[in-house]
Design brief:
Length: 323
């Protein structure tokens, strides 16, 4: 006797397939939209003479570039970029306050998987930097490039992660969440991301400058902090104008960044009066690349915060501050 085959299981099977494809389609759409909203770019770097050196290309020509959060603009070496320039109506200035006449050109920058079109760049002589690093330097990548990014610098892995926020979207910060005591708000001073830190109960505003090897303290604060700073020796530094300036290498007792303690940091004592005058700002110093290498740092430019994470489990120079 033939029995009628029930079609209910078949209907259920088709229904399950529809559900499967619907879920898969939804996931694909979410992944696609996430890709549109957020773009991640991971690039390697080298440390040469305590400066961050990356590979980038300007107008299709690859070269070595210094990652310089202390510079606002892209800077190009005039020995490589001489055509199509126009004279800048303003002068640039170095950390010693030395003014330098610059030229301007508009270029396309490619770095890793990211591309920036119609970027304003200053053209300057960079022979002093090349002599210092011992390699050809094509330019400096300044912080205006990252104003819509999270910029993570992992010194132990020698990797930089750029996470770009597209217009009308928000960056998912879950992978960057850390103890709030190590997240510091910053403000713009002289177009440099700057934080308030402390040397023995004196609050000071320091710019975060990956383009400077040394951390710098303004000479104007030396008298008030004389009990906590040991002067080691006088040193000669060379400015971007090629002239020599005298500074004093020193060691402070402790430096407090939020609730982190940096024990016995080395500081270069320099007068910053001319720098602040030319830049119409009020900075007490700079945190340079040598000190920053104690951390893994995340610059959240859209939200104006900087988070500091220990670069190594064995690291002893940085510890949580006792409150």
């Amino acid at each position: 006797m033939l029995q009628r085959r029930s079609r209910i299981p078949e209907i259920r099977e088709i229904s399950d397939k529809k559900t499967y494809w619907l879920i898969l389609f939804t996931l694909l759409i979410q992944a696609f939209l996430a890709g549109i909203c957020i773009a991640e770019n991971k690039v390697p770097f080298e440390i040469i003479d305590n400066l961050i050196i990356v590979q980038a290309a300007v107008d299709g020509v690859a070269g070595n570039y210094i990652l310089d959060t202390g510079s606002s603009l892209l800077v190009l070496n005039e020995s490589e970029f001489r055509s199509h320039e126009t004279l800048s109506p303003e002068k640039s200035f170095g950390i010693a306050g030395e003014p330098v006449q610059t030229k301007v050109r508009w270029v396309q920058l490619e770095w890793g998987e990211d591309k920036w079109k119609h970027v304003q760049a200053l053209v300057l002589p960079l022979q002093q930097l090349e002599a210092k690093c011992g390699i050809q330097i094509s330019g400096l990548i300044g912080n205006k490039i990252f104003r819509r990014h999270l910029l993570e610098i992992d010194f132990s892995a020698k990797k930089i992660m750029l996470t770009r926020q597209r217009k009308g979207t928000a960056i998912n910060l879950s992978r960057y969440k850390s103890d709030e005591q190590f997240v510091i708000p910053f403000r713009w001073e002289c177009q440099v991301p700057s934080i308030v830190l402390e040397i023995e109960n004196e609050l000071l505003t320091f710019g975060i400058d990956t383009g400077s090897e040394e951390s710098v303290l303004d000479l104007a604060h030396l008298h008030g902090l004389a009990k906590f700073i040991h002067i080691d020796r006088a040193v000669k530094i060379t400015g971007i104008d090629g002239n020599h300036y005298i500074g004093h290498r020193s060691t402070a007792s402790n430096l407090f960044i939020g609730n982190l303690v940096v024990a016995e940091p080395q500081l270069l004592i320099l007068p910053l009066k001319r720098f602040n005058r030319y830049g119409s700002c009020d900075l007490d110093g700079f945190i340079g690349s040598k000190l920053l290498q104690n951390f893994r740092i995340v610059f959240n430019f859209p939200e104006k915060t900087i988070s500091f994470h220990s670069a190594s489990e064995e690291q002893l120079i940085v510890k949580a501050r006792d409150i």
